[in-house]
Amino acid sequence: MSDSKGKKEITRERFAGFLEWLSPDSNTAGEEYERLRFRLCTFFAQRQCGFPDELADETINRVILKSSAETIENKVAYFYGVAKNVYRESLRKERTHLDIDEIDIAAKTPEEPSFSRECLDKCLEQLSPETRSLLLDYFSEAKLAKIELHRRLSESLDMTQTALRMRIMRSKQKLKICVQECMG
User: How many domains does the chain divide into?
Assistant: First the structure.
């Protein structure tokens, strides 16, 4: 399948094939996937990338698209090779995103954030104590400490890191809708 730009997309079948490529045993494949994703997040975090999770996912997506088409001897080395390319691309994108307009905007102190902070606090209070605590904990660390925190949270909740990310994403979406409604 292709989108309008000619890029291939990740389908369930491709992802299942990728897991099979990692290991014929589904449990081992899932563990290997989590291990690889953690290593890639660490790789990007050590390079002080702004969004290591997103860059790790981009790397995995690229490998998924290539894994069925090529014979790859050393999977870990291949992942790191792709990760290096993704890292270089992210550096180029960061350079192109810096312009004078953004600097001016960053220097201004808008009035609205204090109101949105009030809305955020109000909406956080509407969440269950468990969800509120999980959200605040999840975003309390940065860089390598964040990765370790997410691992500990997923273990304490007895869920995979992917399931934890999905739970956080759903909670953030509810919070976002509440804040938008509050702000009118």
Answer: 2
